[in-house]
Design goal:
The structure holds three protein chains of three kinds. By secondary structure, chain A is mostly helical. Chain A has 14 helices and no strands. Chain B is α/β, with parallel strands linked by helices. Chain B has 18 helices and 22 strands. The radius of gyration of chain B is 26 Å and the shape is globular. By secondary structure, chain C is of the alpha/beta class. Chain C folds into two domains: about 170 residues, Response regulator (Rossmann fold, 3-Layer(aba) Sandwich); about 160 residues, Response regulator (Rossmann fold), CATH 3.40.50.2300. Helices cover about 45% and strands about 20% of the residues of chain C. A six-stranded parallel β-sheet of chain C has the order 2-1-3-4-5-11, with helices on both faces. In chain C, helix 2 packs parallel to helix 11, helix 5 runs antiparallel to helix 12 and helix 7 runs parallel beside helix 8. Chain C is globular, with a radius of gyration of 21 Å. The chains are: A mainly alpha, B alpha/beta, C alpha/beta. Chains in contact: A-B, A-C. Chains A and C meet through helix 2, helix 3, helix 6 and helix 11 of A and helix 1, helix 3 and helix 4 of C.
Chain lengths: ~375, ~525, ~350
């Protein structure tokens, strides 16, 4: 029976917490919709109807793939109480350099894709590693340094993304980008029945990253050290964890995953890093990591929910409702999940304390009976 | 509110007691609560409530102060039954509480701290200043209203806290473990202040588990055990030992070693070890000692004289500025903490919650902590991921520790935080004694644990010593040091100032040695 | 009242949406809805670039065209805004959504829509698309509305040099992209034509991929103030919404400013108006209107439609009388450009 309580505490109650938070967010959103004179039920029905069309489903999966990688990158840091707020800069720089690399080199298929992905991971990891090194050698908070590195990466991209350097300009276009990656470096997508667009092939990369994250954090000594340092830095030090080394390693890992997050889009759709490459995904990842409680499976659901809201909200504009309403939904759900989870957490702890208390009581009664 | 209650009634026998608690009960999930608590506190008394950690003293005081509501029972103040819904109600009835951890704003002055939240009483300017001066003089507190709290010492801060409750009109003052944070001289001053309060007709409720102090200052003593009151005694009628036995409900365990198992093989040797603070001050100053196999070496010292730093230097958590640390004949001075642990140094840290445990992690993960690189916790070591955590193996071994070291827990998947202090410590001791360590660094191994755990931990140390373990025992409990050590040093300002013979030394002599006096250093 | 309007629009759109979705979801990309009716039933959709309606510049020019369509052609119109940092897939979704709900023709404002139009247009052969500022997308149902921004910029550059007493003028670009470089190139060339010794201060508010330079008036004001302080007495902007910051700076320092895309003398607040010498006009409104009209009367021609000085697709505004004294010189230059005697560079 204590085991059941433990299992419930680890899996069931967070799910309940997420459901409560979602319901609360829906209620708040409805209130806002109603206050502005719209019919919330009709709006939700529209969103669900549009969001479940095959093309929308594909877009949700694709967007969710990107969000997932972004959130995992953030979550790796969070597990060690490191706030990598620079996922945004890391992925943009990584995507740009990987795109340029992929566009300039000629390699056979498989090798080509793999090389581009490795370059992206390396760039992201090294870029984030700077913040890690600064933290352990100079005591600079990673929050400050990563956000500053975001600006620097923006500057570097602007500098490199010029003709004669890494960019080419197509005649008649006002866009500018890296040379397109040849077909040998692209990742084909999966068709989905009824949809006119394809699911990113690199959705598999996201799955692999998720599994690797789960295994690394949950099953390896490295992951144990990482979590120990996150739960109690002082206890980790006393247990022999080299915390500075772990800080750098964690930042590099987080950055490497961040570097991957542009890959599905780059290798599956854009094939070039141009002015219209999506930006801001790194910040979305922070919210999704919070919503998914830094758990590989939780994040997956959170990423899909987020993508669903983004995609399905597009239809609202057609009915005179600003699609930005979903930002309220998203913000509320994150905020309430944090609060609800804390409440649930305390509840579980009290449960377990009671279980321990009962056990002690039972022991004493037995001891009393035999004495 | 102004003081509405009449001036102290003549403390005659017929006057109702200042505080009368009858049949108080309080249930919580998992924590020892109160049941059938009866306490009667005379007017103008210094009344001590004693009991072990977790005996329910704090719960009871929180009930009296309105922070908790009792499930059953009655509270009567000056003979009148009351029901408090919040501390505000208790304050209105003239009850004040000085918490163990001071609640003062460092960057405000004494006056500002006192007035904060009670601005309606005497304003914030001259009225308040006058009132503070009056109170300070009347009770001999010697408080300077314009000093910033951050510049005050611990004793001064405590007096500010006392003045704070007096300012709010308290006639009954609860002091929660007031001496825990004080040095001996400050304790004496506090007791002087308490007598002053008593002389002015105030009633003091004094919570403590330091029996000598209780016997010195209290007029009446109520003993609590397992959530209930088990005895009310007069200090003149009991000895400290009797009081202690009332507290634990059985005969006290005695720290003692039987026949010597000391060998002449050094297990851990320190050669002129020094540790510097960030400012370059020597926290540990050229300490040299050798612990042999089968020997327990005790370090006595007033807290803050370098014990913590010495321990951390041995564990590799703090860099050694000068000198060498040898494990048997290996120089481990430059080794990482992990390497030292792998080489067979076990570590019971001083602050088990901050340094010894991951409170939110399950017990089995806490068993892995500190032994992340060793079987049965991991398998197929190596690679940058450092091998796989052996969840089965770790769980199985945790169950063994739970059984062998008698950790009371429903399972190995509950978080460490849900265990009591004694059980947490049993788990740590079991963990650190697993894997046949050669040296054990035990910092305050029985601090804050129940008597049962204390006796058990002493027993485990004796057994391990018999098997050849070398133990460095750092403690603030002089009886423990004298009883459990084969060799005993006093540490003062980072230096080993005396070596005493545990077989002959008395706690008094050891106390003098700790403060730098030299009772025949050997 | 507002509520009423929303309801009505919603009801109409809802009906369209339900029909369209039913068809689209089972038929895939092949089937299209909407355009099946006659010319009278055209519903015009317009998707904005980042910044959206209200930038008093590029997007608002498109909106003016749309308003004219609504008023003069009496057609139903709908305009949707983009989100910062979105991907091509989002833009494609937006275009598809409009196509699915019966909007035809559909106008994509800005080169960032190039990939989206490239993806969506072939799937909806019965819907006519237009893309502004891009000529890479080809298709039998796609019109590319492009402008000779450099020509208009040339003329206002000439005006700036002619009006400058300090022989020192400035250019504030929104984001350092090839498009905005075209404005810079024309402006500098025009100014140097009038006065080869003129000093031109050039600055950009942000570097791609940071597009905040198009909607950061505060930053534009700081930059413009800096240019005026360093001796410029005329400053031209190609920075969308950020241009409002330039006008504030000009009014504050009592120096000249030059607007862009729309006639900003007309839209500026009263106290700033007098300092807006002229504006380089980019006839997005005309282009949008003409495009819709061509679809309506079946004279639509796919491919590149270049709007330049010759067909009044670009130009400069004369609503501020202060420009009159240099107007003859500007008209002379304009004619020379039309006649091909002057070729305006497109890159600085």
């Amino acid at each position: 029976m204590p085991l059941i309580a433990g299992r419930l505490g680890r899996i069931g109650l967070p799910v309940v917490a997420a459901a409560v938070a979602l319901a609360f967010a829906a209620a708040v959103t409805s209130a806002v919709l109603a206050a502005t004179g719209a019919n919330p039920l009709a709006a939700f029905r529209q969103m669900i109807g549009y969001g479940s069309q095959p093309d929308s489903v594909v877009n949700i999966i694709n967007r969710g793939t990107t969000y997932y990688l972004s959130a995992v990158a953030v979550a790796i840091g969070f597990r060690m109480r490191l706030f990598n707020i620079g996922v945004d800069g890391q992925y943009r720089l990584a995507a740009m350099l990987a795109a340029a690399f992929g566009g300039f080199v000629a390699l056979p298929p498989v090798l080509h894709q793999a090389a581009v992905i490795v370059v992206a991971a390396l760039v992201g990891g090294l870029w984030a590693g700077i913040a890690g090194v600064l933290k352990v050698t100079r005591g600079v908070s990673e929050v400050i340094s990563t956000i500053m590195l975001n600006f620097i990466s923006t500057g570097i991209i602007a500098f490199l993304l010029r003709p004669n350097l890494f960019a080419v300009q197509v005649q008649g276009s006002n866009n500018i980008g890296t040379p397109p990656i040849p077909p040998s470096g692209r990742v084909p997508g999966f068709p989905l029945t009824g949809a006119s667009i394809q699911v990113f092939g690199l959705v598999l990369l996201a799955v692999a990253v998720g599994v690797a994250f789960a295994v690394l954090v949950g099953r390896t000594r490295f992951g144990f050290d990482l979590r120990a340092a996150g739960l109690s830095p002082s206890a980790a030090v006393a247990s022999g964890v080299n915390v500075p080394q772990m800080v750098v390693a964690t930042m590099v890992l987080s950055g490497a995953v961040a570097g991957l997050l542009g890959m599905p889009q780059l290798l599956g759709d854009s094939f070039t890093y141009a002015l219209d490459f999506p930006t801001g995904l790194g910040f979305t990842g922070i919210a999704i990591a919070l919503l998914g409680r830094n758990h590989p499976v939780g994040i997956a659901f959170a990423a899909l929910l987020w993508a669903f809201l983004d995609q399905s909200a597009q239809i609202l504009d057609l009915f005179g409702i600003a699609k930005e309403i979903v930002i309220i939904t998203q913000a509320t759900v994150v905020l309430s999940v944090v609060v609800v989870y804390e409440v649930v957490h305390r509840f579980v702890l009290a449960q377990q304390q009671r279980a321990v208390g009962e056990q002690l009581g039972a022991d004493e009664r037995v001891a009393g009976a035999t004495a | 509110m102004t003081q509405t209650q009449p001036d102290t009634p003549a403390p005659g026998e017929s006057a109702p007691p200042a505080v009368e608690l009858r049949g108080i009960g309080k249930r919580f999930p998992g924590v020892v609560a109160n049941h059938n608590v009866d306490v009667t506190v005379r007017h103008g008394a210094v009344h001590a409530i004693v009991g072990e950690n977790g005996a329910g003293k704090s719960t009871l005081m929180k009930i009296l102060y309105g922070m908790l509501r009792p499930d059953e029972g009655t509270i009567a103040i000056d003979g009148e039954t009351v029901a408090f819904h919040s501390p505000a109600d208790a304050i209105a009835r003239g009850i004040g509480m000085v918490h163990q951890h001071f609640m003062l704003a460092d960057n405000l002055t004494v006056l500002e701290n006192i007035v904060l939240g009670a601005e309606h009483l005497h304003g914030i300017a001259s009225g308040a200043r006058r009132r503070i001066a009056e109170l300070s003089d009347a009770y001999g507190l010697g408080v300077q209203p314009d000093r910033r709290v951050e510049h005050l010492g611990v004793g001064d801060r405590q007096r500010v806290e006392i003045l704070k409750v007096l300012y709010r009109g308290a006639r009954i003052i609860i002091l929660d473990e007031p001496t825990a944070v004080l040095v001996p001289q400050e304790v004496d001053e506090l007791f002087g202040n308490l007598r002053e309060l008593q002389r002015e007709g105030l009633t003091v409720l004094f919570i403590s588990h330091k029996l000598d102090e209780v016997l010195a200052v209290a007029d009446a003593i109520t003993v609590m055990r397992d959530g209930t009151t088990v005895a009310s005694v007069r200090p003149s009628e009991v000895t400290a030992r009797e009081l202690a036995e009332l507290m634990v409900g059985s005969e006290l365990p005695v720290p003692e070693l039987r026949e010597s198992t000391v060998t002449d093989v050094p297990a851990l040797t320190l050669e002129g070890v020094s540790v510097l603070s960030a400012e370059g001050r020597a926290l540990v100053d050229s300490v040299s000692l050798a612990i042999h196999r089968g020997e327990i070496l005790g370090i006595a010292g007033v807290e803050g004289n370098g014990q913590a730093e010495l321990v951390e230097a041995i564990m590799g958590v703090r860099p050694v500025a000068a000198g060498r640390v040898l494990l048997e004949d290996l120089d481990i001075t430059g080794w990482t903490t992990r390497r030292r642990r792998e080489a067979g140094i076990g570590y019971i840290p001083e602050d088990r919650q901050r340094h010894g445990l991951l409170l939110e992690a399950p017990l089995w993960e806490n068993r892995v902590l500190g032994h992340q690189t060793q079987p049965p916790n991991v398998k197929r070591l190596g690679g940058w991921i450092g091998g796989w955590v052996d969840r089965l193996g770790a769980r199985r071994d945790t169950r063994r520790i739970v059984e062998t070291y008698e950790v009371h827990t429903p399972g190995v998947d509950v978080p460490a935080t849900s265990l009591s202090g004694g059980n947490q410590q049993r788990l740590i001791v079991g963990r650190e004694m697993t894997g046949s360590p050669r040296v054990l660094i035990a910092a305050h191994p029985t601090r804050g644990v129940d008597v049962g755990a204390q006796a058990a931990i002493w027993g485990f140390l004796r057994e391990a010593r018999a098997e050849g373990l070398a133990v460095l025992l750092v403690s603030a409990d002089l009886d423990e040091l004298i009883g459990m050590s084969d060799a005993l040093y006093a540490l003062c300002r980072g230096r080993l100032v005396a070596r005493v013979d545990p077989a002959t030394v008395t706690p008094e002599e050891l106390g003098i040695a700790m403060t730098g006096g030299m009772p025949g250093a050997g | 009242m507002r509520r009423m309007r929303v309801r009505r629009v919603a009801a109409v759109a809802l009906a369209g949406a339900l029909v369209a979705m039913g068809v689209a979801s089972c038929g895939g990309g092949e089937t299209t809805a909407g355009g099946g009716g006659g010319e009278q039933s055209l519903k015009v959709g317009l998707a904005y670039d980042i910044g959206g309606r209200g930038d008093k510049s590029f997007n608002d020019a498109a909106f003016r065209g749309l308003q004219r369509v609504q008023k003069e052609l009496n057609l139903e119109v709908k305009d949707l805004a983009a989100t910062e940092g979105e991907s091509d897939a989002d833009k494609a979704s937006r275009l598809k959504l409009m196509a699915d709900t019966g909007y035809n023709p559909i106008i994509a404002v800005g080169f960032v829509y190039a990939n989206a139009v490239k993806e969506v247009a072939p799937k909806y052969p019965n819907v006519t698309f237009a893309i502004v500022d891009d000529e890479t997308v080809k298709g039998s149902n796609v019109a590319n509305l492009v402008f000779a921004e450099e020509q208009a910029s040339y003329l206002v550059g000439a005006a700036a040099a002619a009006k400058s007493e300090a022989d020192n003028i400035g250019f504030v670009g929104g984001v350092d992209t090839p498009l905005i470089k075209k404005f810079e190139a024309g402006y500098v060339a025009g100014a140097e034509k009038i006065n080869p010794d003129v000093e031109v201060q050039v600055g950009y508010l942000s570097q791609p991929p940071d597009f905040s330079g198009f909607r950061d008036p505060a930053k534009a004001k700081t930059m413009a103030d800096g240019m005026y302080d360093k001796g410029a007495d005329v400053v031209y902007h190609a920075a969308g919404l950020s241009g409002n910051g330039l006008f504030e700076a000009a009014a504050g320092q009592k120096k000249w400013a030059i607007g862009v895309d729309s006639d900003q003398y007309v839209s500026a607040p009263g106290d700033q108006k007098q300092y807006i010498l002229t504006s380089a006009l980019k006839g997005v409104d005309v282009a949008v209107f003409d495009f819709v009209k061509s679809v309506g009367d079946k004279t639509f021609k796919p491919g590149v439609q270049r709007f330049d000085l010759a067909d009044n697709g670009v130009g400069y505004s004369t609503s501020n009388p202060e420009i009159n004294d240099v107007k003859p010189r500007l008209e002379e230059l304009k004619q020379q450009i039309i006649d091909g005697e002057i070729t305006v560079p497109t890159e600085p």
